[in-house]
Amino acid sequence: MKNYQKYQRGYFMPPCESNRWVKKEYIDKAPVWCSVDLRDGNQALIIPMSLEEKLEFFDLLVKVGFKEIEVGFPAASDTEYEFLRALIEQDRIPDDVTVQVLTQARPHIIEKTFAALEGCKSAVVHLYNSTSLAQREQVFKKPMAEIKALAVEGAEMLRDFAEKTPGNFRFEYSPESFTGTEVEFALDVCNAVIDIWKPTAERPVIINLPATVEMSLPHVYASQIEYISDRLHCRGNVQVSLHPHNDRGTGVADAELGLLAGADRIEGTLFGNGERTGNVDIITLAMNMYCHGVDPGLDFSDMPSIQEVYERVTRMHVYERQPYAGALVFAAFSGSHQDAIAKGMHYREDHDPEHWNVPYLPIDPSDVGRMYEADVIRINSQSGKGGIGYLLEQQFGIDMPPKMREDFGYLIKGISDHEHRELQPKEIYEVFCREYVNVLEPCRVDSVKFTERGGMFAEVGLKVNGVSHPATAVGTGRLDAVSNAIKDSTGIHYTLVNYTEHAMTKGSTSDAMAYVGIINGSGKIVWGAGRHNDIITASVNALVSAINRRDRVE
Ligand SMILES: CC(=O)SCCNC(=O)CCNC(=O)[C@H](O)C(C)(C)COP(=O)(O)OP(=O)(O)OC[C@H]1O[C@@H](n2cnc3c(N)ncnc32)[C@H](O)[C@@H]1OP(=O)(O)O
Ligand SMILES: CC(C)C(=O)C(=O)O
């Protein structure tokens, strides 16, 4: 990367300190949200949305709860124009939703914009012109005064057209390329526009300060916002709006620090679609507030359907690691994360079900329509006993003793490692059943009869390789008696060290599951499990399974 000297910082710091925002800790109330998916998002697509697709997306935005929606640039194309006409003529704009349209400061474009708005009950008309040093020098080739005049003339045209067009119109002005504009100049232009529009409490004006291209660290942007916000004319009747892009990957930080710096409103898109690296992702912003306990005023509780519509109509793909929405953002493959999540979920159930504080999961996946079963604990060679055991417990009601979880964990990791793939819960369950449960060859017990004779006496109908080995013995309990009988009759050496059992809680079954651990001839612990609707049979099967598996563990 030898060409770095080609670049220089192109932003402008405010002329005096503006950093009160630093002392604020978090965003304590939702801003006014404006979706620009149908305009900025749309103008960045390889194939812009069709009219039908825009209608479907509009309905989705309304459902999510947006009250301000930039529906397009009606002078740009027939589709943009017709889309706004369809919204108006088909009466598809709910009373509590305001549509917004974008226009350049050019008479024929403004005229066409107002023509498209005919019959619209209320709208925000959004005027922009670029004010940056680079655009003044290279694109418009005009000095500051002429650029300001362009804004002023545009503002006057909007005012005049609004006066003669029926409807309730509010105005928005963007000094486009704000981040490359001298801050005092941006302020001067914005104030000149405000002076023309004369905002009132009933008809406030929006001043939108876009990070058209992100050029600085987010704290610089925040300082610029605070400087301007403090000095705007009629500030009480002006909404300061932000429109961050994401060129440096810090669009969300721009928006958040900008809100701390005094902004009232955010323009952005779902999943951060938009020009180049995109507009700020409103889902991330809203969910960041949500997980600080602040109501964002937007509803993302059915993220999978939102994503489905978005991907279909934009032909974009939601990245697997996209905050709050990506397919993998709640997934834990690694053992220590899974273990902590499993323990955290149990802790929550037992101690504080009202609140969420589960390690590694900043929000409860079910709040955005994601499933614990499918989305959280996922098994591959990085996984551990905690997660694997938790998965079997949650999905199949298998609650192994801790030491057996370890044994099974290594078995599953090994399979995933050798096959080099993720294992699905059902496969894991099948391995568990195949490997441990009711392993009844070469030994099997077909019948047991217990009587009390100075201890528990067992008569065991034992078969080894299909040959009957009737056996009897006394023990301290039923399982001990059966175990002694098997040992005496077969000469197999082992020590029974662990026994647990539980009723199966998943599925419509009255089965019991029993687990037995024995120490084999090499001094290693070997596990077996037994499943049956009779608890004694389940426990005998668990013992026999462990005995039959004893040579599998070296
Ligand atoms: C940062 C943003 O996202 S801004 C929004 C950008 N979005 C879009 O541009 C999508 C929609 N745009 C379009 O469809 C077209 O550009 C139209 C219909 C608006 C205009 O089309 P055309 O006039 O054919 O072409 P074009 O956009 O190249 O016009 C450039 C001219 O407009 C001027 N211009 C550009 N922006 C503005 C503005 N905001 N206000 C006034 N004049 C402007 C340029 O200086 C240039 O002037 P010149 O003809 O004297 O050289
Ligand atoms: C029109 C303006 C707000 C814009 O889209 C931008 O600056 O990115």
TrEMBL record:
Residues 31-304 form the Pyruvate carboxyltransferase domain. It comes from the Bacteria. Its main location: cytoplasm. It is found in: Cytoplasm. It holds the Pfam family IPMS_D2. The keyword Magnesium applies. The keyword S-adenosyl-L-methionine does not apply. Keywords: Amino-acid biosynthesis, Branched-chain amino acid biosynthesis, Cytoplasm, Leucine biosynthesis, Magnesium, Metal-binding, Transferase. It catalyses: 3-methyl-2-oxobutanoate + acetyl-CoA + H2O = (2S)-2-isopropylmalate + CoA + H(+). Residues 439-554 are annotated as: Regulatory domain. It is an enzyme of class 2 (transferase). Coiled coil: none annotated. Its cofactor is Mg(2+). Catalyzes the condensation of the acetyl group of acetyl-CoA with 3-methyl-2-oxobutanoate (2-ketoisovalerate) to form 3-carboxy-3-hydroxy-4-methylpentanoate (2-isopropylmalate). Homodimer. This is 2-isopropylmalate synthase. The lineage of its organism: Bacteria, Bacillati, Bacillota, Clostridia, Eubacteriales. The gene is leuA.
